[in-house]
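Weekly puzzle thread! Below is a chain. First person to post its structure in token form gets bragging rights.
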Amino acid sequence: MSAAQSQARAFAPSSVGNAGVGFDILGHSIAGIGDTATVRRIEEPSVRIAAIRGNVPDLPLDAERNTAGMALIALRQALALPFGFEIEIDKGVPLGSGLGGSAASCVAALVAANALLDAPLTPQQLYPFALAGEAVASGGKHGDNVGPMLLGGLVLATADRLTQVSVPAHWHAAVVHPHAVLETRRAREALKGHYALHEFVAQSANLAQVLLGCERGDAALVRAGLADVLVEPRRAPLIVGFAEVKQAALNAGAMGASISGAGPSVFAWCESEADAHRAADAMVAAFATAGFASDRFLTPIAGPAAKVLP
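Winning reply:
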């Protein structure tokens, strides 16, 4: 291996997890915000984290307690690598935002480390290691964030497979992040309890309509289906102003809107970039009325994948 191949940098975009109707299995990447990881190949057969910089303080440097570190530990063990990795992480995605912050570090580190392998793996082959890393933060292996980061765009992420869902290139999402924190574990606590069978039937119908609508480019199907009847009603009370923000997006012409990941960010799917601009403006204004400043991101739903940087 040449000296130039002993280090690699990679960028992983943030993501909208769940995409409303696909709890833990459906998500899409977000252009314009993400994490960067620099990974060095080292002789010592271990994984260590040298530094974490950016907008998230106090993240663990212990590799087994860090999503990026655990992903590379899983990679080393599975491939029985005789060498190790040293990681530096530059955070661009805030944690507790519902934008896949823990997943972005994990995927960026994996993609960088993969570039240092003698026989690099495909994104599908990296998926199990991304799940192992994500589980450190969320407590479970679910791919609705890491999947879209690995493949790009809208992705259906099952336990052992990633499937990219076709979406019209002109469809855009407005994603608005209020300056508030909602911890993923707290948001999951809100989901405990009993669910009625008719709720599962309705959610299944909605998910089917969204997937078919995306594949066919049929906005009417997406409008009919993009309504979360399982998770959103239980998490909405944790997000101050959510109902007003969602309604503002719908009033601005969005096909649908819901909570991004565990929240408190909110996303809206729109038929054009211009519609997404209008929806974002309305959502920001609604959050301001609720007492929160916020950041807005506009992205094609068919967003970018993680990539190695020059």
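Puzzle host: Confirmed. Bonus trivia for everyone else. The chain has two domains: 3-164+304-309, 172-300.
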